[in-house]
Amino acid sequence: MWSWDAFFDFLTNPQLIQGAWTTIWLTTVSMALALPLAVLVALGRASRIAPVRAVTGCYVWLMRGTPLLVQLVIIYTGLPQVGLRLGVISAALTGLVLNEAAYLSEIVRAGVLSVPRGQSEAARALGMPPWKVFRVVVMPQALRVMVPPLGNSFNGLLKTTTLVSVISVEELLRRTQFAVQTNFRVLEGLTAAALYYLAMTTLWGLVQRWLEIRVGRGHQTGPSRGRRIKSAAVPALEMETR
Questions:
Q1: Cβ-proximal residues to 189 (8 Å cutoff; 6+ apart), any chain
Q2: Which of 39-53, 184-198, 222-236 tops mean pLDDT?
Q3: Phi/psi class of residue 227: alpha, beta or left (left: φ > 0; alpha: ψ in -120 to 50)?
Q4: How confident is the model at residue 216 (pLDDT cuts 50, 70, 90)?
Q5: N or C end: fewer C-beta atoms under 10 angstroms in the chain?
Q6: Is residue 19 within 8 Å of 175, Cβ to Cβ?
Q7: What region holds the ABC transmembrane type-1 domain (predicted)?
């Protein structure tokens, strides 16, 4: 039978609280490392150099075509056979970052491709170097498209971290499994863990909503819009339409 006492004990169990914190920082660090790598991969796939396109395309194909669980096991237990031994946390971060970057690169690439080519051409006509065109003109506009799916990816990564428990990372799920072994109240323990995940994803949903509003604020249209947008994309657009 269901035990409310056991359920509330799990909710306040220090092991689950510590596991939730591990899940949060593991997700945050993985996302922070995967995003710059994703930008590089996206730029590589858009490169005019054929070998660069081939390498980055193969990377995305490999990471997206194989399960993350298999990748984690290979990194943690397979690489030591060729002389490369990683710790538990290092292996978990490596697997999460490499896998997530492959998916994020497609989001970044889609965001960049959503910006009309005339914007960057107009900026180059103004004398901007390529790196500045990308930073000042392309990325601010691409972010409007990228933020929602990037936020969804972070939300998904919060739950995907459960897979690292198979290589002994003591995140929320594994901590819950340890706690359950003390009284064998499996249903109450897993329900408490599910509520922790629900709380984390709900809080992130609020943050994501705030980010979407903030990124899109300068691009709102309507009679109430009274401020002039200060962006390099505006003079670039004016140059394009002349």
A1: 6, 10, 176, 177, 179, 180
A2: 184-198
A3: beta
A4: confident
A5: N
A6: yes
A7: 20-208
What is the pLDDT of the chain when averaged over all its residues?
A: 87
Using an 8 Å Cβ cutoff, are 86 and 76 in contact?
Answer: yes
Q: What pLDDT is recorded for position 158?
A: 96
Could you give the CA distance from residue 196 to residue 149 in angstroms, rounded to a whole number? 23
Separation between Cα atoms, residue 121 and residue 133, nearest integer Å: 9
Nearest to 141, CA basis, from 208, 211, 210, 216: 216
CB 188 within 8 A of CB 6: yes
- Alpha carbons within 13 A on the beta-carbon side of 155: 17
In angstroms, the CA 108 to CA 38 distance is 7
Give the Cα separation of 114 and 219 in Å (integer): 15
Tokens of 3: 């035990």
- Residue 27 is encoded by which pair of tokens? 């997700």
Q: How confident is the model at residue 219 (pLDDT cuts 50, 70, 90)?
A: low
Dihedral of CA atoms 42, 45, 48, 49 in degrees, nearest 10, equals 110
Is the pLDDT confidence value at 132 over 90?
no
To 10 degrees, what angle do helices 139-160 and 88-113 make? 150
Q: Which two tokens mark 74? A: 């290979």
Task: Give Cβ neighbours of residue 126 (< 8 Å, ≥ 6 apart).
Answer: 235, 236, 239
DSSP three-state, residue 185: coil
Amino acid identity for residue 56 in this structure: T
